[in-house]
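Need residues for this backbone.
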């Protein structure tokens, strides 16, 4: 059986279209029309990835609520928003709640499938023995790629899959600048415009553990880098 994807979309025709396209790619699909039903199903059996709309039935913000609920169930679960809403506010809100990607419904099916496949490749790459250091340590930072666990000064930092990957990429070569284009290309799952939102969220999470956290530097006009140890 292939990887299991949960589709949460209140419009039956759209839901069926996505479910059929994903099934043709070999994925096992569970389709849901509302937030309570989707949440109950995910609690019973967590999918390998979730694709959710924002407006769900009589809940205009139901997708946002569901994203937060799913993220509470698992920090590793890849979550993609697929919605007609394309305002910057909605994009930032979705990413702040822990989504890994945000797409609008005018996206082509091949592009959606590519983004889903890219998220699964990222999960596999982090878990593959020997593909990366199992544990990456940079000063107060410790990243365990097998468990997708991050800590700072010995205290856990709860990162999503995308956030974990971004920290891992930056911390691998302290002092080296990663341009926004490099981050976008390497990730294969976020648009250039969402890089800043992800970095801000990462900084806030580390700041909860250490108010003086400043290891991620913005390099004006170039990108970001992990500060070298002094």
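Answer:
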């Amino acid at each position: 059986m292939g990887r299991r994807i949960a589709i949460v979309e209140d419009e039956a025709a759209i839901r069926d279209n996505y479910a059929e396209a994903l099934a043709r790619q070999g994925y096992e699909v569970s389709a849901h029309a509302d937030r309570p039903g989707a949440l109950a199903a995910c609690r019973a059996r967590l999918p390998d990835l979730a694709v959710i709309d924002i407006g769900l039935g009589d809940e205009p913000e139901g997708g946002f609520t569901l994203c937060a609920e799913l993220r509470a169930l698992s920090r590793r679960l890849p979550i993609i928003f697929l919605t007609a809403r394309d305002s910057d506010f909605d994009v930032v809100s979705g990413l702040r709640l822990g989504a890994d990607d945000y797409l609008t419904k005018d996206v082509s099916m091949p592009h959606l499938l590519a983004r889903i496949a890219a998220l699964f490749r990222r999960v596999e790459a982090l878990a593959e023995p020997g593909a990366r250091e199992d544990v990456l340590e940079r000063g107060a930072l410790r990243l365990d790629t097998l468990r997708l666990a991050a800590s700072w000064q010995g205290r856990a930092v709860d990162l999503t899959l995308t956030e974990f990957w971004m920290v891992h990429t930056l911390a691998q070569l302290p002092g080296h600048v990663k341009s926004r284009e490099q981050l976008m290309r390497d990730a294969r799952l976020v648009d250039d415009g969402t890089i800043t939102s992800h970095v801000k969220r990462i900084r806030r999470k580390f700041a909860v553990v250490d108010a003086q956290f400043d290891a991620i530097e913005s390099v004006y006009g170039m990108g970001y880098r992990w500060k070298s140890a002094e």
